[in-house]
Every structure is written in C-alpha cells, then in structure tokens.
Specification:
The chain has one domain. The protein has five helices and two strands; from the N terminus they run H-H-H-E-E-H-H. The chain is an alpha+beta fold. A two-stranded antiparallel ribbon has the order 1-2. It starts with a helix and ends with a helix.
Length: 112
C-alpha cells in the first residue's frame, strides 16, 4: 500500500467516524461529551481530552446531563449524555490552547 492510499483510507475513516457520531446524536437527541467531540471532528484520543475539560466546565455552569446505563466491554457502566444545547453552553466557557481544540470548541458552540 502506497502513501496516497494510506492517506485516502485515513481520510475516509475519519470522515466515517465523524458522520456516525453526528448521526447518533441526531437520532437520540443527546450523546456523551466524547461523542459530541468526535462529531466535531476530533480523534478519539483528543475527544476524550476535550470531553474531560468540558465536563469541568459543565460542573461550573451547573449543567447536569441525563445519567444512563450503557454496555461497555461486557459490563454495564453509568454515562452522562448531554444535548447539543448543553454542550454549546459548556463550550462557551471552555478556553483551550491547542489550535485543533479551539476549532472543535467553536464547532461545538455552533452546534446548538
């Protein structure tokens, strides 16, 4: 496999991940903060980092999502899902330094 094919596969994989996350949020009406970040175009590792910071911002604003149970790796765990409007409110308070995170925060703020 040559470099251009690898680049094309990476682009398709990233686009697919973003579209799946966005459609999941649209279908359910809410999603975890990580899902919202992936829908904004971040990689899963970056999304977890931004989601952690957004969680802190949500606590500062008193935003409480919906606590639900989900299946993960063969066991149940509790997760909190937020609507796009709640994520947008938290993204306004969030002040990232990295350029990619700034772009994602702007997309999250406009999502609602």
């Amino acid at each position: 496999m040559n470099a251009s094919a690898r680049e094309a596969r990476r682009e398709i994989r990233n686009r697919t991940r973003t579209q799946r996350a966005a459609s999941r949020i649209t279908r359910r009406g809410n999603g975890s903060l990580t899902t919202h970040c992936i829908a904004a175009g971040l990689t899963p590792k970056e999304a977890r980092t931004v989601a952690s910071s957004l969680r802190k911002a949500a606590v500062k604003l008193g935003i409480q999502g919906t606590a639900l149970r989900t299946h993960a790796a063969g066991r149940m765990r509790t997760c909190t899902r937020y609507t796009p409007a709640q994520v947008a409110r938290a993204a306004v308070v969030y002040r990232p330094r990295k350029a990619a995170y700034k772009d994602a925060a702007a997309r999250l703020a406009l999502a609602a």
